[in-house]
Amino acid sequence: MPPAPGRVNTGGVRVDFATAFGEGARQYRRRHTAMTRTALIFGISGQDGAYLARFLLDKGYAVHGTSRDAAQHGFANLETLGLRDRVVLHSATPTDFHSVFQVIRRVGADEIYNLSGQSSVGLSFDEPAETLQSIVMGMLNILESARVVGAPMRLYHACSSDCFGNTGDTPATEETAFRPRSPYGVAKAAAFWEVANYRESYGLFACSGINFNHESPLRHARFVTRKIVAAACRIADGSGERLKLGNIDVARDWGWAPEYVEAMWRMLQHDAPEDFIVATGQTRRLEDFVAAAFAAVDLDWRDHVDSDPALLRPTDLSVSAGDPGKAARLLNWRATKMMDDVVAAMVAAERGESLTS
Question: What CATH code is assigned to 14-217+255-282+321-337?
Answer without folding.
Answer: 3.40.50.720
